[in-house]
Design goal:
Number of strands: 19
Strand order of the largest sheet: 6-5-14-15-16-13-17
Order of helices and strands: EHEEHEEEEHEEEEEHEEEEHEEEHHHH
Strand content: 25-35%
Structural class: alpha/beta
Shape: globular
Bound molecules: flavin-adenine dinucleotide
Oligomer: single chain
Distance between the termini: 59 Å
């Protein structure tokens, strides 16, 4: 039986393990953290990623999620820039990260072994396989070890890697009673968004421009429209993460018997809400290619499919992040005006 090591048990790593298991591989997942799990935040999962999870046999994602509805965009004082135009587009579902992670790992069968508290420090490969920490060996290694991937650094020591976007993100889950459909509010250099979860609580996120490495509170949103201050006050825990993406061009996702997947390959800013979805789609593609071709051909096909697709997303997400985070008052006025006109045109077309 073919064997694989998956480094990292984030959403990308655990989905890869399920995909490899379905192809008949014996999989060992190595996770540095003492236990499996995900952070306390929500996550949007787009239909393409839900479809991959369903193909992989991961059940119940839609049941545990809230279907997003068209949501509008407001100004910090609460005035609508644009209502909730129905663009006729597919929208993501919103789910708690831990729930999504649990649904995926629930599919682990006897072919998947998980070792937590295992830090991958070295990898070496030869014609016959890949060795980790001079300890474990397998036919294939999938590096799903996140944006600061040690495996990627070992393969591509010259690559610059993470690039600071200029903004930090706050996230929380609020236990508040609200009658508000959610949506986003864009200010000058700050953005806030929220959406309902299946258990009635609300997932919210906010971003603010600041130098990397600054610990701060989301106090800038205290003067923003209702229910924003209530959402922040109603959250037991607030996460703060500086937002990085990966330097372009991305490095090849395959070198010999080692594959990069998820943020290790293509970390993007969260503006499109597609980072984890892309990791899920990577895992689906890897499994699909491995079932239909020899190892080297399958890995080449994986790189050829996933690198261009995710490069586009990294670029689009970065561009949207720049637009959302601009603090220039003239650019903000023009931006909001264009959104308002765009929204009206869409509404007009929908009425016709
Ligand atoms: C504010 C914010 C909001 C977001 N919202 C969305 C959203 O709505 N929708 C969406 O699709 N995406 C979203 N994303 C992006 C998404 O969170 C990531 O793209 C996704 O979590 C990446 O998953 P991953 O498994 O590739 O990496 P990670 O989640 O980073 O997992 C990597 C794992 O590898 C482990 N690890 C690292 N190094 C080692 C080592 N040497 N040895 C062993 N284990 C190791 C880590 O402990 C970790 O568990 C958001 C991101 C942020 C910051």
């Amino acid at each position: 039986m073919s064997t694989a090591i998956v480094v990292g048990a984030g959403i990308g790593g655990v989905t890869a393990a399920v995909a490899l298991q379905r192809c008949g591989w014996q999989v060992t997942v190595l996770e540095r953290a003492p236990e499996l799990g995900e952070v306390g935040a929500g996550i949007s999962v787009w239909p393409s990623a839900v479809a991959v999870l369903e193909e992989l046999g991961v059940k119940g994602v839609e049941k545990a999620s809230v279907q997003s509805r068209p949501a509008g965009m407001r100004r910090p004082d609460g005035r609508w820039v644009v209502g909730a135009p129905d663009l006729g587009m597919e929208l993501p579902v919103m789910i708690h990260r831990a729930q999504l992670h649990d649904l995926i790992t629930a599919e682990f069968g006897p072919a998947v072994t998980v070792r937590t508290g295992y830090d991958v420090r070295t990898i070496t490969q030869d014609a016959g396989g890949v060795t980790v920490n001079d300890d474990l060996r397998a036919d294939l290694l999938v590096a799903a070890d996140g944006i600061r991937s040690a495996v990627r650094s070992a393969l591509y020591p010259q690559y610059k890697g993470p690039r600071y976007s200029g903004f930090t993100a706050y996230r929380g889950i609020a236990d508040v009673d609200l009658d508000d459909g959610g949506g986003e509010t864009w200010g000058r250099g700050q953005l806030f968004g929220f959406a309902r979860l299946i258990d009635g609580r609300f997932y919210w996120y906010g971003t603010a421009n600041q130098p990397a490495g600054t610990t701060s509170e989301p106090s800038v949103f205290e003067s923003w429209h209702d229910p924003i201050p209530r959402l922040i006050a109603g959250s037991e825990k607030i996460l703060q993460n500086d937002i990085y993406d990966l330097t372009l061009p991305l490095v090849p996702f395959v070198q010999g018997r080692v594959v990069l997947l998820g943020d290790a390959a293509h970390a993007m800013t969260p503006n499109l809400g597609r980072g984890a979805c892309s990791a899920i789609e990577d895992a689906g593609a890897l499994g699909r290619h491995l079932t239909s071709a020899t190892l080297q051909t399958a890995l080449a096909a994986y790189d050829a499919e996933r690198r261009p697709a995710t490069t586009k997303l990294v670029k689009r997400s970065r561009g949207l992040g720049r637009l959302a985070q601009t603090a220039n008052p003239i650019v903000c006025t023009v931006r909001d005006g264009l959104f308002a006109v765009g929204g009206k045109l869409v509404a007009l077309r929908a009425r016709k």
